[in-house]
Design brief:
By secondary structure, the protein is of the alpha/beta class. Helix content is 37%, strand content 16%.
């Protein structure tokens, strides 16, 4: 089932539209709500999660700003518009639209989706979350940078020089820069071959089609954080999360252990799984093992 949830946003003359897709019957079992990364990567790359549909309904949606939901390219660069509060409100609105605001739900967030999930779960008034999954995510941008910079230092010297020069000159659109970024992505975004896996290509395509949210909130690439999330942290919020929480990352993930560690340190009921031979798209790189861990956690 696919549909549109009208979403009223302050300052806009017309309601936005949040596109969603439900796999299975929402009346049977506890639904898993899927928050995609980016911002702006859209739901497509997380469709392997339909492997879990035998035991629960799943709700995918494209957050506003990209995908099949409302695009707002005129808001590019407006950090005051593209706030975490905006996306929390969109999630609230979607749950009301689907009649899930008063029912138990499981919440899954990948990368930026994990950031959003933590923000929503820690401040949600109704607290109807049963279980929380934070996949390949980060608890603070400072910790994320430590991990990414360590991985960057392991790149070939000529690649590092291109990245450094491009950042100094503010040139993020040259073929040389894109090729250098791809070297990093092949090591730490996904290890699936041939490159790029369809799921990786789907996310990269959406960034290319409309970089509004990603460019405004994150930056020109995973290696240069210039957007509104540059100083973000959720560490002070983590003690408010009392539901069982699963952490997943990959050994070669750009979401290095240092970025995930605060989740483990401050969330009381937490389990952490790191998958070998997997990067940021662990659900693609090690699909079978990933789904087994997820299924076991959700069924417990």
């Amino acid at each position: 089932m696919e549909g549109i949830a009208p979403f009223t946003v302050n300052g806009l003359s017309e309601p936005c539209q949040t596109w969603y897709k439900v796999i299975g019957n929402l009346q049977s079992g506890i639904p898993l709500i899927v928050l995609h990364g980016g911002p702006g990567a859209c739901h497509d790359y997380l469709l392997p999660l339909t492997d879990l549909a035998a035991h629960r309904p799943l709700v995918f949606y494209d957050q506003i700003g990209n995908g099949r939901s409302t695009h707002l390219p005129e808001k590019s660069g407006e950090e005051g518009f593209w706030t975490i509060e905006l996306f929390k409100s969109e999630l609230d609105n979607l749950l009301v639209h689907l009649g899930l605001d008063q029912r138990p739900i499981d919440l899954y967030g990948h990368s930026w989706g994990g950031m959003l999930a933590v923000e929503w779960a820690s401040t949600s008034k109704d607290k109807n979350i049963r279980r929380l999954v934070l996949s390949n995510s980060l608890a603070s941008m400072d910790a994320w940078k430590i991990g990414v910079n360590a991985l960057r230092a392991e790149l070939p010297q000529d690649v590092q020089e291109v990245l450094d020069r491009s950042e100094e000159e503010g040139d993020f659109e040259s073929a040389e820069y894109e090729a250098a970024v791809e070297v990093f992505y092949k090591r730490h975004l996904s290890l699936a071959r041939p490159w790029p896996a369809p799921e990786v290509q789907a996310a990269l395509d959406w960034f290319a089609k409309d970089p509004t949210t990603y460019g405004t909130m994150y930056g020109p690439s995973e290696l240069y954080i210039s957007g509104s999330l540059r100083n973000w942290t959720c560490v002070p919020l983590l003690g408010r999360i009392h539901v069982p929480t699963l952490l997943i990352n990959g050994a070669q993930d750009e979401a290095q252990d240092v970025a995930m560690q605060p989740f483990f340190d401050h969330i009381p009921k937490v389990k952490w799984v790191t998958l070998d031979n997997a990067a940021h798209f662990s659900h693609v790189d090690q699909r079978e093992a990933y789904m087994k861990h997820l299924e076991s956690f959700l069924l417990a």
